[in-house]
Amino acid sequence: IRYGLDGRMIDLERLEEYPAAALGDRLLAWTAPARSELGLDPALPAENATQRQRHAVAAGATIEEAFATEVAASARTYATEEVTT
User: What residue ranges do the domains of the chain occupy?
Assistant: First the structure.
């Protein structure tokens, strides 16, 4: 991807371009049957991490603060590992 979500993707089957921002919705539509069988319904954020970091910096955060916020948010999504013996 060039230019992130502001760029364009190529649908190689249809040989046409589409907005990169539509990729998440297209992926959800494509995986809908399998996700339905498994009872999965993921929620995608309105902005990606880069967009959130840019907005944070524009609002006065340092680059380090913006990055640390995203790292912490990602870490909260990790499944906890339980070791059993």
Answer: 1-44, 45-85
